[in-house]
Design a protein that fits this description.
Helix content is 39%, strand content 20%. The protein is of the alpha/beta class. It folds into three domains: 117 residues, no CATH class; 146 residues, NAD(P)-binding Rossmann-like Domain (Rossmann fold), CATH 3.40.50.720; 68 residues, no CATH class. The strands form four sheets. It has a six-stranded mixed sheet with strand order 3-2-1-6-4-5. Strands 8-7-9-10-11 form a five-stranded parallel sheet, with helices on both faces. The radius of gyration is 27 Å and the shape is elongated. It starts with a helix and ends with a helix.
């Protein structure tokens, strides 16, 4: 390791730490890396600098002659959300559509080329529902690099159960409806009345068609219903909440990449098109809202996640000394095929156990 490398190690470690801090804070930035140098030049291949969206530069990529060019190119990369190559040189070279060329302003007349990689906050998906599937989807979406947050249920505040304005204020790109029988229509209407780009509904095709008709009756136009994707993801023959969530998040990932490809094509045609460059607020934990007090005496079906009223439940199985309630005979039959699997995935709520004991008495 030579002296020059030793000198650059602390700065590199500092930039890596700063990158992680900005990622955690949801702040957009770009990293510029020198990939080619022609003498005379005061930089070297591998030199790096981090540029924030306001133009603040951390690190070092050479003398002051080229800094202004690099900063503006980095800010443009952040605005477009796309990487770019930048050449700063007075050397004659054939045009290259993949390289942004600038004249070298320094009297030394050297040359350098950089690769600029922006990092912008990923799109936000708001997950509706207080079901096991909703929780699993929120956690898994974050693992897939999305920002995911549970939707606020305002039923106990006396207002509408879900509010479209909340999604718009948060800048949500996607809505995932995982209510599974508990507030489906209210959640779907709120999502469709917001400006989210896509609404994914966890439901069968038959149920989705019924909900589409309900939305039309509530005044949702067909042009807006085109944003509805139901079922939410590819058919993977899911049964458990984890499997259902996996299929839905696969649908989110596919839609995200489709949107990014379309945005890249649009930006190529309209260079002034931009993406958000503001810092995003921190996410709340993936804890689904608890059922309101009015839900006392109800039980969450471990197969489909639907809330079942204990007093009127017609489909009941006694397993391991406890009663398990289902919304229909199909869910009951599915549970009986593999009861341990479903109970292992079921949240252990003390209130539920209390409700069981009270009902059994």
């Amino acid at each position: 390791m030579n002296a020059e490398t030793v000198d650059t190690v602390p700065a590199t470690i500092g930039l890596l730490q700063l990158e992680q801090q900005l990622i955690d804070a949801g702040v957009p930035f770009a990293v510029a890396t020198v990939i080619r140098v022609a003498p005379p030049a005061s930089t070297h291949v591998g030199a790096q600098a981090l540029v924030e969206s306001d133009g603040t530069l951390h690190g070092w990529i050479g003398g002051g002659c080229s800094q202004a060019i690099v900063i503006e190119a980095a800010r443009q990369a952040i605005r477009l959300g796309q990487p770019r190559r930048v050449r700063i040189s007075n050397e004659p070279a054939p045009p290259d559509p993949e390289v942004e060329a600038h004249a070298m302003p320094c009297a030394s007349n050297g040359a350098m080329e950089l690769f600029i990689q922006p990092t912008v906050p990923p799109p936000l998906v708001v997950v509706f529902g207080a079901t096991p599937t909703a929780h699993e989807a929120c956690v898994l979406a974050r693992r897939m690099g999305l920002r995911a947050s549970p939707a606020a249920d305002t039923a106990r505040a006396g207002g509408p159960r879900f509010d479209a304005a909340v999604l718009d204020d948060a800048g949500a790109s996607f809505a995932l409806i995982a209510t599974q029988g508990d507030g489906d229509e209210d959640a779907l209407e709120a999502a469709l009345r917001s400006r989210v780009g896509a609404v994914l509904l966890i439901a069968s095709r038959r149920k989705a068609e019924r909900l589409r008709e309900t939305m039309r009756a509530r005044g949702i136009a067909d042009s807006r219903l085109a944003a509805l994707h139901a079922p939410a993801g590819p058919a993977i023959h899911a049964h458990t909440p984890q499997e259902i969530a996996l299929g839905a998040v696969a649908g989110l990932v596919a839609l995200r990449h489709e949107r990014e490809e379309a945005a890249a094509a649009a930006q190529a045609a309209v260079p002034q098109a931009t993406v958000a460059t503001e810092a995003v607020p921190p996410l709340a934990p993936c804890e689904m809202p608890e059922a309101p007090a009015a839900e006392a005496g109800r039980y969450v079906n471990p197969v489909c996640g639907m809330s079942v009223e204990i007093a009127t439940a017609k489909h009941v199985v006694v397993y391991g000394g406890r009663k398990v309630y289902f919304c229909c005979d199909c869910c009951k039959a599915e549970f009986e095929r593999a009861p341990a699997r479903y109970l292992a995935a079921e949240p252990d709520h003390e209130t539920r156990a209390g409700e069981n004991r009270a009902e059994e008495r």
